[in-house]
Design brief:
The protein is mainly alpha-helical. It has two domains: 359 residues, no CATH class; 117 residues, STAS domain (Transcription Regulator spoIIAA). The chain is built from 28 helices and seven strands. The protein has a five-stranded parallel β-sheet with strand order 4-3-5-6-7. The chain has a two-stranded antiparallel ribbon with strand order 1-2. Helix 9 packs parallel to helix 21. It starts with a helix and ends with a helix. About 9% of the residues have low confidence.
Amino acid sequence: MAGAKRRKKSAVWRKIHALRCEDIKLWCVRRLPILKWAPSYNLKENLIPDTVSGMMLAIQQVPQGLAFAVLSSVHPVFGLYGSLFPVIIYAVFGMGRHVATGTFALTSLISANAVERLVSPASNNFTTSNNSGVLGLSDFEMQRIGVAAAVSFLGGIIQVAMFVLHLGSATFLLTEPVISAMTTGAATHVVTSQVKYLLGMKMPYISGPLGFFYIYAYIFENIKSVQLEALLLSLVSLVVLVLVKELNEKFKRKIKVVLPIDLILIIATSIGCYCADMEYTYGLEVVGHIPEGIPAPKTPSLNILSEVVTEAFGVALVGYVASLALAQGSAKQFKYSVDDNQELLAHGLSNVIPSFFFCIPSAAAMGRTALLYSTGAKTQVACLISCILILVVIYAIGPMLYWLPMCVLASIIVVGLKGMLMQFRDLKKYWNVDKIDWSIWVSTYVFTVCFAANVGLLYGVVCTIVIVIFRFQRAKTLSLQNMKEVECKFKTEADCESLQQVKIVSVNNPLVFLNAKKFHHDLIRIIQKDSASTQPHDDLNKGEQNTLLNPVSNGNCHGELSLQPCPNERCALILDCSGLTFFDYTGVSVLLQIYMDFKNRSIDVLLAHCKASLVKAMQYSGNLGSENPIFFESVSSAIGAIHLNRNFSKLSDHSEV
């Protein structure tokens, strides 16, 4: 027994000594992406656009930070801290170059449930005059931020644990319809929570199952208590915000810097409220005192972690799902890669570390990320520059926001959620591509509205898995086609070299979100492997040499396309879709991506044995833009078309000579 322990210990020491400095360096670069892009940062090309984007981002971060802090049921100043520390942490550990982390409406709404449950105004033993000694705030306010910080801390710990367990690869279960429906439903909840500020009503905090309907029932029962001044100011703010943002979007190519309407509205309404003394004359609710500076770090309230487990899981899952979708979208648009697992670490640390600085839960927001797109940001330097300006607000400008009306903050929140609410337009797309995805979207949205975002997300994932398993069980297994007859029909001495550049892949399984990425990866890998090996001319007599039969298997992958176009003949790929019994939106998207990627590399992609529903879905989802037909009834007709086109090309070349 002792000998076995010694051998095990010596093996561990051998592994430790085998570590090289190069291995440690690679690990650091992989876990600290800033070490990869910062040394190669181009000051001349990137600094100016990053600076402009950072300034515009800070202008949007400040009102959103204040508003989302109120949404989280804590003092507004803690929203400013939440717009500072998580941004710095993500810039170091995150891979999304255009992802704007900070306060987030959905995570704020989830953490508010814990704050109101554990430190409700009706049950608190503190008064606003009890000074805690921290920033001049009351013990009641510090108790509330203590709960929100505990939710952020535990939520971040859960995300880091998911990173350690490599659960980032499980994100293929989060399909686009589920994420879209969940975020849209959560945005509906956020808008509902702001109605009381828009109307200037005093109402108790309402949450829980069917809380969405109870809120509107309370509003209609007490409709006479609506404050007309607040309602009028809210309507004016909403109209101005929507109108100016639409004009900014319409003329963004003609104007270099968009009009910061959020900042202008805050300044204008604050000055107007101060001059007219609306707080006392009309009873208009304002933000109130915002203390200067940043307090010393403090450990979150660990004794209440067991009481905020539900909210912490909601913050961890909802925040990560929404943030990952934005990171993957930016990576796709700007042609770089994002590691799903590394994003878990980045967002986990962006919640854990800031929780020591009185921060509410954080995540990436769609509106801020879209702002970085539109203003031409290049790297995370834009977010770091915004942090400098937020520091100026915290130490100098913050107290001037005392007179900012709460109804204006609520208007900014509602208009900022426009992008999420506009996802209702996706319903038409899902209906035309796959009606089951449409039904998943609708039912997930209903569950999110009736219960909560985390419940809707869980329902969407479970529902998707059950439906896919059911569809896989009902799928018919078709036998593989014998390709020898097809090849013998066109195999002549003159055409052997031409047909050698034709690759045939038979798709033998349904193509859905579970196996779409693996299908793409396997297709690229097989063609690369086949292209790398030069086949002797005599081997063309064997039927299998020109046929690549690859059954699709389930899984996840991260493959990149690196095919090179053929020097002499234009290569062609034929996908035999006889075994593709059903598909979903993700599967169609992957087929379109394969078609466009191969087309950009001068490789023709033809699809044989396609069902009418697949042809319709591909034609609807993307612009194929091909002069020649790409859908064929059989593989033989596809090869015949290739043969005919190449003979025509040769004839044209001879005629030109």
